[in-house]
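Support request, please re-run this one:
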Amino acid sequence: MTVHEFSHGWVAYKLGDSTAKYSGRLTLNPLAHIDPVWTFLLPLFLFISTGGRFVFGAAKPVPINYLALKNPKRDILWIGMSGPLANFILAFALSIILKFTHASVHINFIIESLIIINVVLGVFNLIPIPPLDGSRILSGILPQDLASQYSLIEPYGFLILILLLWMGIFGRIVWPIVNLILRLLGVSP
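Re-run finished. Output below.
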């Protein structure tokens, strides 16, 4: 999550918004991205309540001032894509390390786990439901009037997301994509 959130802040900074920098979020220090509820309490509650079958959590979102961006409509698309792209790049780099190093079974397990986590984060965040990055990408692509209408679902985004997860959408759409990417990276899920 640290690489993901850092990349949002870095791209926003490059596009004119220094909010993440001045709020101490333009860093790879994971402590800067921890949210007590989203990073600890929610995952712990879900782990306990589902008997370990389902865990979901999040980092503290990087603050972005859309008014500071050079071209807000276009730039939000790049900021939205930066997090998942960073996860995919990290997963790819780790897969190369895994292929060309002969580490212990324990180190290989850690690297494979990091690859899987990054691919899952990247794919999951591309779902076009607020507050996920896919919604930012879709807002950047849609014509302004449709983007404004689409933004009206944001207050209900988390509920919609939970409902879709509960209905099994994650298993039917996200996991097949994750498994395909993992196979391309040479990692078995």
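The longest helix spans residues 72-100. Residues 6 and 185 are 24 Å apart (CA to CA).
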